[in-house]
């Protein structure tokens, strides 16, 4: 089943999906040792930041049992 395409003002755009190039792209360059170390350092920094925020935020997320008398405000005591 061939579907008829809508006419477009530029014929080369309609034929672009059928174009095959015989030119091969150049091979990718390997990352240098400093680039690998930099990527590793960025990854470790991100993980350390997430772990640090979790460690510092856990006390704020934990629910205390019962507030002590010193922590209660005057409004809760009826003053």
Describe the secondary-structure layout.
Blueprint: H1 11-14, H2 33-61
Could you explain the architecture of this structure?
The chain has 79 residues and is an all-alpha fold. The protein contains two helices and no strands. It has helices spanning 11-14, 33-61.
User: What portion of the residues fall into strands of 2 or more residues?
Assistant: under 5%
Termini Cα gap: 84 Å
The number of helices is 2
Helix vs. strand class: mainly alpha
> Fraction of residues in helices?
40-55%
Overall average pLDDT: 77
Order of helices and strands: HH
Q: Summarize this, please?
A:
The protein is mainly α. The chain has two helices and no strands.
List keywords for this structure.
elongated, 79 residues, mainly alpha
């Amino acid at each position: 089943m061939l579907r008829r395409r809508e006419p477009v003002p530029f014929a080369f755009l309609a034929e672009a999906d059928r174009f095959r190039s015989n030119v091969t792209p150049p091979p990718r360059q390997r990352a240098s040792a400093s680039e690998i170390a930099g990527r590793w350092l960025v990854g470790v920094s991100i993980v350390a930041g997430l772990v640090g925020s979790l460690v510092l935020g856990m006390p704020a997320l934990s629910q205390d049992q019962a507030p002590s008398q010193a922590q209660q405000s005057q409004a809760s005591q009826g003053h």
